[in-house]
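G., the chain you wanted modeled:
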Amino acid sequence: MAQRGGYRAPSNPAAVSGPGALSKRTDGGPTQPAKYISGMPYGQGQETYNNQVSATMAGNPFPQQDMPTELFAPTMRPNEVITSGVDSGAGPGTEALRRMPNAQPTVLSIIRDVAKYDSTGDSELLYRALLDSGY
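Predicted structure as tokens:
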């Protein structure tokens, strides 16, 4: 009978990561293994697998936002009015935010927003699968 529960030692490369400069990857490396996805229409599962094997998976394809590294760093938008995005003062109002007023989020919009910050790319794969299915 197979062993259930308990500690299972990872095979690659470290069981536990050390602190700070001594830290090491514990997930087995920088690339994901290719996986065959069953239950897809005829030929599509094999095509997906062949695409994964031909090119390494690259994590999150969404561009990362530039963030300041210091709390009191100089502004990244020196020519923008400080009241931009607010309905008072100089500059564009809330219409510049490109959001629909009183719009209720949907499951699809939430997964799309999560995919922007998911470095594994799993959320984007789920988002595209839902989008392709006509959800």
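The two ends are 42 Å apart (CA to CA).

Shout if anything looks off.
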